[in-house]
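Hi there. Long-time user, first ticket. I'm pasting a complex I've been working with (about 664 residues overall). I'd like to know whether the download I got is complete or cut off, because the file seemed smaller than I expected. Thanks.
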Amino acid sequence: MINNLNTEELSIKRYLRQDRLPHMWCPGCGIGVALDCFLRAIDRSGIDHNGIAMVCGIGCAGRAAGYVKLDSFHTTHGRAIPFATGLKLANPKLNVVVFSGDGDLAAIGGNHLIHAARRNIDMTVICVNNFNYGMTGSQAGPTTPLEALTTTSRYGCFEYPFNLPYLLSASGAPYIARWTALHVCQLEKSIAEAMVKPGFSFIEVISPCPPIFGRMNKKPTGMDFMRYYQEKSTVQNGADPKNVDIELNGTIVVGKFVDKECPTLLDKLSQVSDKAKEVKT
Amino acid sequence: MKQNKIMVGEFFVSGDVACAEGAISAGCRFFAGYPITPATEIAERMSLRLPQVDGVYIQMEDELASMGAVLGASWAGKKSMTATSGPGFSLMMENLGLGIMLETPCVLVNIQRGDPSTGLPTMVGQGDMMQARWGSHGSYEIIALAPTSPQDIFDLTIMAFNLSEKYRVPVIIMSDEAVGHMSEKVIMPYMKQQSLTNRQRPRVNPEQYLPYKPDANLVPPMAMAGEGYLFHVTGLTHDERGYPVMTTEAQDHLVRRLVDKIRVNRDDIIKYKEIQIEDADIIVCAYGITARIAQMAVKMAREKGIRAGMLQLITVWPFAEQKIRDLSSQARAFIVPEINYGQIVLEVERCAGDRAKTVLVPNMGGKVHSPEIILEAIQEASR
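Hi, the file is complete. Here it is re-exported in full:
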């Protein structure tokens, strides 16, 4: 949507590569909203954008790296988190943000996602969840709700989906939030919070995909999704992640589910370094 | 001695440990890996040593992630490395391709074992030589070095880091279980700063910086994340700005340069050792542990009055094409012993053409060749 606005009026325009606009996302897509909230979070939280490294995987959301005027990496499918892990450990001063889709992060990259949470590595993961593989034309994925129609589930999706906040909670993530593309103020606030919080943070952004997933599931326009979010989402901060499954056209529980303190990977590595230097052999 | 700094002196260590210490001497300060026989000792050594020299060791969840983390660390400015063996090497092919496309300096060590698949985990092999060249998808050139001893793997690991920094390309150490697990004396010299290569840094201010605008040697200067250059890089086909460009012209321009930066600099990259080659009409062409054994076979052949010599490939990729062509007009035959069923022999055959016969001395893995079996091939060719 950014290309339809006068970018001169936006405070976030300095974080955008305007020579790369218009972007390639479909009308009504929620990735632009998630990106917008990310850039506003940088702007309003006062984080120095020179110190941010943004890492994306492959897919629609993965293309976000190419539109930002930040140090940004468009990597391999599923491997944004490992790449980001190397960046962060090699230069702990970097503020590392992974921005990618549900297929990239939870399917092909699912193992990296849970291990990054387990390690409590200092990074923020923004997962744009549109319930399908949009880039390749709406195939079913690990978040596709039961019975949803996709080009590879013509008779209705027959696999149980992941409840991502529950998965991340079980993996030890100390910060977990979920918002929809309708909840822009809350989403921006959560991203800003996550980016300054030490340790691993996970933010799920429930996102419209009107011409791809929506077309096959009776929500062909962005407005259809927004109405659905307005009618069916309920804010429950502190909700137990195990109770926040999303069924097709069902209730979407949103909010900040987890926000706890625990030593991060960098804290632990600093102790390792101290111990190593005491060793005399 | 205290091991809380870079090791200098004479040590009795395994090839795997020598490799780790060579990396530290070369300035490597980041290692991401996953345990696998027979390369595990490199990870173990790095986990002990890197924290002592302000480096970071991280054990990743698999080899896909290990290679990804190595690339990320390089973009944050650290010299970085991973080590693995066959099954892990296969997984690393994915991000090796990204490393080539993003032009990321790093070192990947493969301590080869019996193959294919799980094969012979604890026993020697040289079956991944072609995978090192062609294992990731697409057209590219790679640099691969083959050490023959613990001393050699120490020295070549330093050379690997220097080449990777100079040409902004992942460099592969193609070693094997025999070298990795044998213990010998290794001299670790004090490394002067001037003997270590560091990547070219941008010489323009951030507004003018183009991440993929190459220098005269076809290698672009490299900025690090967090320095204010605000660059974008992508595994998609891209232009000098680093922006994705989906055209045949951009593809042609980029792929040619990625390949040519290695090809036009091949004389600087390719190293080999010649042993009794001046008058040789039977030349053994070998690499890695097999070269060490072949040397004995050459000696035995000389004692029998056969004019045998050896060309030891230090740099396996890019291949020493011109050297083989030159020698093919002098030699009657090339004998190529390798611990596989014929890989590098195909390259020798290609370069020798009809001018000299090429003979493979295969070995399916699990043990090294005996000198006698190589000698037999030399004798047969000399008849």
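A couple of notes from our side: Chain A has a mean pLDDT of 95. DSSP finds nine helices and eight strands in chain A.
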